[in-house]
Amino acid sequence: MATEETKVNAPIEEVAEEATESKPKKSKKEKKGDCEKLRAEIEKLTNELANAKDTHLRVLAEYDNFRKRSAREKEAIYGDAKANTLKTLLPVIDNFDRAADNKTDDIEVYRKGIEMTLTQFGEILKNLEVEAFGEVGEQFDPNIHNAVMTVENDELPENSIAAVFEKGYRMGDRILRFATVQVTN
């Protein structure tokens, strides 16, 4: 037998010949049986690979379908939510139209109609879980208030709201609009 260094440098044929010399020789029948076993194993592994590939492609297709379906559902939910919100506002718009068309009533009846419409609108906001904030006298909070002016005022404590230019609105923890206010020094 050759040394390790000789094996590394020897041609493949010599190493293969040496390896076969050390093993007992097989008969043609045994070699044929081994070949059939190898073919069966190759066929089995080929089938397993094809099944795994098919499963992989099916999972990819299912994921792609899921992604597309989710995007369509998300768009539909947004559209439905928007439509439902607008439906709740339509009665308020109708009342404003009626008020604009009414030319015969006096100013007190007109004012009462506007107040009722504002009350109706406030109820709609309440049902949508939207609340207004930003009242005179509240403590100024830069996280929810937008101060555009300051004023000296001895009647109100320092850093409180002296005037509200636009109310703020929030839905839960989400600020929809910051309150625009004037703050005392």
Kindly describe this structure.
With about 180 residues, the protein is an alpha+beta fold. Helices cover about 60% and strands about 15% of the residues. The chain is built from 4 helices and 6 strands. It has helices at about 5-10, 10-20, 30-100, 105-125; strands spanning about 130-135, 145-150, 160-165, 170, 175, 180-185. A 3-stranded antiparallel β-sheet has the order 1-4-5. A 3-stranded mixed β-sheet has the order 2-6-3, with no helix packed on it. Helix 3 packs antiparallel against helix 4. The mean pLDDT is about 85.
Biggest β-sheet description: 3 strands, antiparallel
Shape: elongated
Helix content: 55-70%
Order of adjacent strands in the largest pleated sheet: 1-4-5
Mean pLDDT: 87
> Which structural class best describes the helix and strand composition?
alpha+beta
Q: What's the N-to-C terminus distance? A: 101 Å
Percentage of residues in DSSP E strands: 15-25%
What is the total tally of β strands?
A: 6
Order of helices and strands: HHHHEEEEEE
Based on CA atoms alone, the radius of gyration comes out at 41 Å
Topology:
Elements (H helix, E strand, L loop, with lengths): L3 H6 L2 H11 L5 H74 L5 H21 L2 E4 L11 E7 L9 E6 L1 E4 L2 E4 L1 E6 L1
Parallel strand pairs: 2-6
Antiparallel strand pairs: 1-4, 3-6, 4-5
